[in-house]
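Pasting two entries for a bug report.
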Amino acid sequence: MTEQTITIYCFIDDFFHAVGRKDDAHCKINDAELLTTALLAARYFHGNLCSAYSYMQAHHGVRRIDKSGFTRRLHSLQPQLQALFSALGQSLKELNTSSAYLIDSFPVAVCDNIRIPFCHLLQGQAYRGKCVSKRRYFYGFRVQVITTSSGVPVQFYIHAGSFVDITAFKAMEVDLPPNSRLYADAAYTCYEVEDLLRECEQIELRCCRKANSKRKDEPYMAFLKDYYRKRIETTFSGITGLFPKKIHAVTAEGFILKLILFIFAYTLAQVID
């Protein structure tokens, strides 16, 4: 765990030096230490920031600050956290010589269905979605994730749970290298989107075809799509395996921030390990 902590800290600190970000001289802990603590919380402590901070104090000599100050600074660093993930994702794309990527989504419930009328974190029917694979409804967010062919996340998009995959995909800014192949299930079927991606971005969207599809696949192509698509389910199991029984957050922004930390922590774990 010590080696992983040092590796994460060095990665964040080097990135901040590269972009010219300087720490406030009055801060007791610098930004790299704070983000390292938050990522360790997601990786090893099920998102418990207090436990991760106690570990950093005991084993790495991080100075103590109050919980509210730590949380405020963490929220203010969310743009830097997303920039860090984008930089890591860009490096992973450059190393992905196969040019094959996978996309799918997984639901994250904020509360049980029976508690929807009493939920203060989210309000409105936009967050009520359906998980077809589990045959149940949920209330919360849905996370679109693009991974490499080996299942390492390189891009994600968090949206309200009621939006289906293809609707969210149209709103998502897909940033993949030219001549990439993006494998998806039948929920992403949209011939217009496929044609636009091929003509404008040189990205081939390979969706699994339904029985009544107008664009039938050759048997070998159907096998390839089904083979690649299943790998991303293992990624989702790994990400949700980091979740606690209930993700604690006071605001919707805090809930989303913790989701970002879990996805980032899983990606770092795949890269480091």
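Entry 2 (this is the one that rendered wrong in the viewer):
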Amino acid sequence: MILATIIGMAIVTMVPRFIPAFIMEKVQLRPWLNRWLNAIPFAALGGLIFPSILTVIPDEPWIGLLGGVVAVIIALFNVNVIFAVIGAIATVFLLTF
């Protein structure tokens, strides 16, 4: 019974993820809608990351903000995202050291 429940939950979870992948190949969206949909991952990441930037060190939120600014500046150079992450981590580490 437990195995059937796990398999059922996997199917229910995967179906909504697979259907758009097959449908979106055949649908042509308007350019403005396509740009809007492409911006959603960035907005979600911003919503997830920004609160953590402010609370990286509870008593000193400016350190997290400075690390975030360094990450944004590095990202503006269109380098790999790992370099922006490493730059932000290094900035926070050096400011707390």
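Dev reply: Rendering is fixed now. As a check, the viewer should reflect this: Residues 31-54 form the longest helix (24 residues).
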